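Hi P.,

Sorry for the delay on this. The queue was packed all week, but I finally got your sequence through. Input first:
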Amino acid sequence: MIRQSKATKRNFLTGEAIEIIKEKPLKAVRGVHTIELFDALTGKLVERVESENFISKVMEELQRQAALFAFLTDSIRSERSIQYNGPLYDLARYDVVFKNPDMSWYTDGDFPMSWLVLTDYDGPEDPENEIIMRGRIIGYADRYNTYVGSDTKLGSLNTAESFAEPQHIHLVYDWPTHAANGTFQSVYWNYHYERNTSIAVIGKKYLQISAPNGYLFYSNIFIDNALTKVKNGKLYFMGKEVQTNKVAILVYDLNVQARTITNGQVYALLNISANYTYDDFEIAPNGDIYLISGSTLYCFGQNGSPKNIPGTSQTSRDYGYLLDLFVIVGQDVYIESRTSYTDDLKINRYNINDLVNPVDVKVIPRSSIDVYQKYCKGMHYIPELDMLAITVDGYTYFVDRTMLDLSKNTPVKTIVSNYSAMTYDTTKKQFIEIRHTTPTGPNGNDYTKHDVTIRPLGFIGARNLLPSPVTKTSTNTMKLTYDLYIDSF
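Then the structure:
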């Protein structure tokens, strides 16, 4: 059942009035934001916006899990200890807390409605698919805490005007003249004020992938997850042939409805020993394979023979102090080119036929991606959105490829496992993280297999697209009221 909800905006100085109709599902819970701007000198109301948010699907899933949790749990012994004595096999088909502890709303991570966040994202509401917070962050407020200070984004809960009742929660937040200045159009409830989480409550999938006979998965104990790429719906791993100890690139079809995948093929067997330490690899459109070891780049044909680095007469080339970011996008090749890990992030773009003379150089300031005294952990291309996913110190930043910049349509930084492969599900419109680890066998690590976790990135609690942008300046104070209505049983 669908109902109509009216969103309004009125500017009391210009006379501007906007009214739009949103379609909302007929549910027992709904939340409404009222935003008011005041003239800081006179206290006069300047602008008022009233609009209803949508509650994310993850909140419905949390309700389902809470019901299972309440019914099936025998006891809670401590904050992170759940006692369950029932039939685990039967329960395993429901991806709930007892099977996968890292999916638990109770045992891991803050609640998805812990922080109120204002961003400039203006994309349409998509309740069926939206799970990630996007845009430049303008302001935020902790759900239940007050604040007084100089932070330029942080607001404060107004305890005098807020109240909570069984059927109605009324929360009021205030921002002074120096905070939350800028233009915003989305209001989120999120687990954190400046980042998305990758704690997957729904949509997680576990697989075990086996290497082809005679092959092992390559292991670098420091960066095991780096040696994975997703291209054209296929998953590529670095491995090695047991008999010759040569580096191999293994490829798998991910469209297999099974928890155990054994359909691996050898994409290429390279004429180089696997005894070296390799940090990453990449595959060019013509099939060539590039290996990265420290700051050295190697090139091989798909037949396994070494090839000259384009623009040189050498099969390997040193690129300086750092080579943690390397990705090929069609005819463009992006290579990190910092000379010190105290510098701002610097990326050279080359033509794939000349990896000596950069076409251009882009410096991404620390205010956008902070790499000060940090090593980058890999870069992946998201062709569906023409974005680069740059991982730094446990966070992935999705940036526009052409500008190498963050924009209002860009997800805010996202917690990931360092070196995870990134892709995008066009059907569900979700960013996907692919992690893999080496399982332990009877005699230690079993390099014939990889345990793979595929999970969507980010879970918001709610989002509200306002009727039009709201601009707060240093001449305004701002009040935001959130009313959560819960129908009685």
